[in-house]
Amino acid sequence: MGALLLLALTLGPAVAYGAPTPTMVRADWKPYVDAFIQADGRVIDRAGDDVSTSEGQSYALVRAVWCDDRATFDRVLLWTRDNLQAGDPLRLPAWRWGRRPDQSWGVLDANSAADADQWMAWALLLAGDRWRAPPYRDQGLALMGRIWDEETAMAGGRRVLLPGRWEQGKPVYKLNPSYWLPFAWRTFARVDPSRDWIGLVDGAYELFEACRSPSGLPPDWCWVDQATGKVVPPPEGELEHTVFGFEAFRVGWTFAAEARWHQDPRARKQLEAFGTLADRWRTERTIPAVILPDGTPRHTWGYLGLYGALLPAWAEVRPLDVEELFRAEIRAAQDPAVARDYYAHNWVWFGLALWSGLARPEAP
Q: Could you tell me which residues come within 8 angstroms of residue 115 by beta carbon, excluding any fewer than 6 positions away?
């Protein structure tokens, strides 16, 4: 895997002495571009039928800003506009693009995905600041307005972020805690005081607490009654989505960013549950990829993306364990199957970027 193998070769025994430097983490950007981004700016999920998603495009935009690569940023942004936004840079992108049953290529699902939309709007604001380019900022502001209008709703007097516009109007909202990005909303609040983004931050922290599983970890999905704003049990057939799995692990990164960048004590409190995973690590030398609400594992195998998101989380609350986790990631990254997993690539890189200090909430 690019990031970890490159860092292993660069650092050698030095991995035992702290976080990698921003320069070391930034050096993995070009290998990622070469492996996963076409010349026209399409980010390819090579382990997922070669589809492209708004998530993958938005992750690449954020990474390009932090790595000061405006040329790649522009290519990714242009492909997103032409293929996911139907040529309109001010509309929310379709979330999934790939090969259709008739073998043509195009949009497979035109629904929006709020996590990707926020990362994209945030990346545009960062790009506008970093490269002193008002058009990026203007596009980011326009997308923020669409997110607010199309992907937020009221639930019991509290405004909540929906997972996409497709959830609007339902009596019970199916919400995804890993889509709630308070660190981005704080930036949105700074540039858009006309909307109550900070109220969205406060409401999300209330829901983070209310949605927590008995294990203390967040679930992949949580259900909230529209009228009362209260968390309710999942509908029949949805119990499998209450696990801590491939969605929820990203919340650890979010809380680490909130603790590091904004010193929010609510984030540090929520991080404690992620810190307890270090206790499991010490005894079992792995962290299950999927954990049931009561804390028992659904699977015995670990997932590299989860480990990546845990790096900055443990750096905040379990610093004595974080370097060993990093060394374990380097070993795990040598599995050939990992080379095609763009999702794991991204979350290991995001973890390293935040831990090292390369990731920042505003342009330098």
A: 55, 58, 163, 176, 178, 179, 181
Q: Are 218 and 179 in contact, with CB atoms under 8 Å apart?
A: no
Active site annotation includes 115: yes
- Contact between 310 and 325 under an 8 Å Cβ cutoff? The reply is yes
Q: Is residue 55 part of a domain?
A: no
Alpha-carbon distance of 312 to 254, in angstroms, equals 9
Per-residue model confidence as pLDDT tens digits over 249-270: 999 999 999 999 999 999 999 9
Q: Catalytic residue, from 28, 45, 69, 115: name it.
A: 115
Q: CA nearest 197: which of 252, 120, 141, 255?
A: 141
> Which two three-digit tokens encode residue 256?
């680490």
In a domain, 254, yes or no: yes
The pLDDT tens digits of the residues spanning 102-127 come to 999 999 999 999 999 999 999 999 99
CA 111 to chain CA mean position, Å? 18
Is residue 317 in some structural domain? yes
Residues 6+ apart with CB under 8 A from 328: 285, 307
Handedness of CA 330, 20, 72, 182 (dihedral sign): positive
3-state SS of 134-194 is HHHHHHHHHHHHHHHHHHEEEECCEEEECCCHHHCCCCEEEECHHHCCHHHHHHHHHHCCC
Q: How many domains does the chain have?
A: 1
Q: Mean pLDDT across the stretch 286-306? A: 93
Query: Does residue 285 sit within a domain?
Result: yes
Q: Specify which residues 43 forms β-bridges with.
A: 37
Range of the domain at 278: 1-20+248-358
User: Given 55, 220, 247, 316, which residue is catalytic?
Assistant: 55
CA dist., res. 78 & res. 167, Å (int): 28
Determine whether 220 is an active site residue. no
